[in-house]
């Protein structure tokens, strides 16, 4: 079997061919499909996939290496988490525009400069969500405007302290950890 498209020859035995798919849930935020897949050895297996438009998160870094976190209740865990400003992408929305919008809505901040820190696959075992990571600098403060039903607190923390919070598991949100660690590398911490 010859590899197709951008599939490398070494990946050939890892590729699964979709032979059937069925939508079992179609909600406001995501859709769930059950797929029948053919494996390299010819056997058939099933995959349950959450299809999600993705999201964007942004590190707001001031001139003194402070960052801004939001504290927000997260229902799946029944607790308040520390996170970076973030939001879900609307269909076909530019991820950077989403990050800039969420920064303004959640913190009131506007950035003179926004750059990409890359992207991450949040839960690749069953979900298509890709989270785009950004760094905002040259900050100016304005008024926040959270979405209806969104209640949060904004806190300013030195980046070095946020890294310690990761080590102490006080920050446990994956997108926040990855973006903060990438930011720390970028600024030499």
What's the gist of this structure?
By secondary structure, the protein is of the alpha+beta class. It is built from three helices and ten strands; from the N terminus they run βββββββαβββαα. The strands form three sheets. The protein has a four-stranded mixed sheet, with helices on both faces. Strands 1-2-3 form a three-stranded antiparallel sheet, with no helix packed on it.
Which properties best describe this structure?
2 domains, 4-stranded mixed beta sheet, 3-stranded antiparallel beta sheet, alpha+beta, Nucleoside Triphosphate Pyrophosphohydrolase, 189 residues, elongated, 19% helix
Description of the structure:
This protein has 189 residues and is α+β, with helices and mostly antiparallel strands. It is 19% helix and 44% strand. The chain has helices at 95-107, 159-167, 174-186, and strands at 17-26, 30-38, 44-52, 55-60, 66-74, 79-83, 86-88, 109-121, 130-141, 152-158. Strand 1 (17-26) and strand 2 form a beta hairpin. Helix 2 (159-167) crosses helix 3. The chain is elongated. The termini are far apart.
């Amino acid at each position: 079997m010859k590899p197709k498209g951008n599939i490398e020859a070494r990946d050939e035995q890892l590729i699964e061919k979709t032979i059937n798919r069925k939508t079992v849930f179609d909600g406001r935020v995501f859709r769930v499909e059950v797929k029948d897949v053919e494996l390299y050895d010819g056997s058939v297996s099933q995959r349950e996939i959450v299809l999600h438009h993705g999201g964007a998160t942004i590190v707001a870094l001031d001139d003194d290496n402070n960052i801004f976190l939001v504290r927000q209740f997260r229902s799946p865990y029944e607790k308040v988490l520390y996170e970076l400003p973030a939001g879900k992408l609307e269909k076909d929305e530019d991820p950077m525009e989403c990050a800039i919008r969420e920064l303004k809505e959640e913190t009131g901040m506007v950035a003179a400069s926004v750059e990409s820190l890359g992207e991450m696959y949040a839960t690749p075992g069953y979900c298509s969500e890709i989270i785009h990571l950004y760094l905002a600098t040259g900050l100016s403060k304005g008024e926040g405007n959270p979405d209806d039903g969104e209640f949060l607190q904004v806190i300013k923390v030195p980046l070095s302290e946020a890294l310690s919070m990761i080590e102490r598991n006080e920050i446990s949100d994956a997108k926040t950890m990855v973006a903060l660690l990438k930011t720390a590398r970028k600024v030499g911490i």
